[in-house]
Amino acid sequence: PQVLEEISVTHLPSSEPDPHVVRVGWSLDSCSTQLGEEPFSYGYGGTGRKSTDAKFQSYGETFGESDVIACLADFEAGAEVELSFQKNGRWLGVAFRVPRAALAGRPLFPHVLVKNCAVEFNFGQRPEPFWPLPAGFTFIQHLPLGQRLRGTQGPKSKAECEILMMVGLPAAGKTTWAVKHAAANPGKRYNILGTNAIMDKMRVMGLRRQRNYAGRWDVLIQQATQCLNRLIQIAARKRRNYILDQV
Q1: Of the chain's two ends, which shows fewer C-beta atoms within 10 Å, N or C?
Q2: Mind listing the domains of the chain with CATH numbers?
Q3: How far apart are the first and last CA of the chain?
Q4: pLDDT over 80 at 204, yes or no
Q5: What is the C-alpha separation between 224 and 219, in angstroms, rounded?
Q6: Residue 44's closest CA among 13, 11, 16, 67?
Q7: In what order do the strands lie in the sheet with 21-28?
C-alpha cells in the first residue's frame, strides 16, 4: 500500500506519541482488527517496529506519507513461511518466519491498521506497480483462482443481520458475557459496540491506554463515547452482526 495522506487532526492532545500510524502485514481470517497484537497476526508499522502477539521489536525503518510498503509472503521457503517488507522498492529483510505446521493449512490474508491516515492498495489491479516486485513474487490478483481463498463474508441482507443489546446493572458482567459470546460464536463475526471495546483498541505499543495515559481520564472517556456514537451511525448502514454493550 501507499500512504497517501496523514489526515489533519485537532482533537488529540500534544502528548499523543504517534498521531499518524499505518501498520501493514498478514493475519489469519479469524484474527481481530488489531494487527500484530495477537497470535498469527504479523504487522510492520510506521514507527519502525514489527509485532506479533503484542510483542514489538525494532525492524526496518519508519515510514509515513507518500511511502510505499510492499508486504511479501514467501510460501516456498521450506518448512516456514517467510514474511518480509519493502519500503519504496528496497527490501528490509525477513520480519517473521511462521512454521507451516502452526498454520495447519490456514491461509494468511492481507491486513492493514490505520490511524488518521489515507491509504491506497494495489493487489495487482494497477497497470503499473508503485515499485517493482522482487524476482519470484507476484500480486495476489494475478494468482490463479485455485490458489486463492475468499475471506469471511458478512450477512447477505439486513434481514439476516443480528443485534444483541446488553441489559443489566453496572459491573454485572455484561461486557464479560459479550466477549465470551462473541468468542464462542466465531462464525457470527460479532462487532461489539461499547466504550470498553473502543478503549481496548486504543492501545499504545500493545499496552492498554490506562497504563500510560497522562491526560485527564474523564476527557478520554468522553472522547470514547463520541466515537461510539459515530460507530453506531456507521453500523446502521453496514450488514454485520452486532452486540451493543453500553448502558
Answers
A1: C
A2: 2-147 (2.60.120.920), 158-244 (no CATH)
A3: 39
A4: no
A5: 9
A6: 67
A7: 55-58, 49-52, 41-45, 21-28, 108-115
- CA 83 to CA 181: how far, in whole Å? 33
**Residue 55: strand pairing partners:** 52
88-122, pLDDT tens digit by residue?
Answer: 999 999 999 999 999 999 999 999 999 999 999 99
For 43, 158, 178, 191, 246, the CA distances from 166, given in Å and listed in that order, are: 33, 20, 8, 13, 7
Residue 86 CA to residue 131 CA, distance in Å, equals 9
Pairwise CA distance, residues 240 & 247, whole Å: 21
pLDDT digits (tens, 9 = 90+) for 148-168: 999 888 899 999 999 999 999
Q: What is the pTM of this model?
A: 0.86
What pLDDT, on a 0 to 100 scale, did the predictor assign at position 205? 64
CA separation for the pair 143, 46 (Å, rounded): 28
**How far apart, in whole angstroms, are the C-alpha atoms of residue 6 and residue 19?**
9
> Residue-wise over 79-93: b if at least 16 C-beta within 10 A, else e?
ebbbbbbbbeeeebe
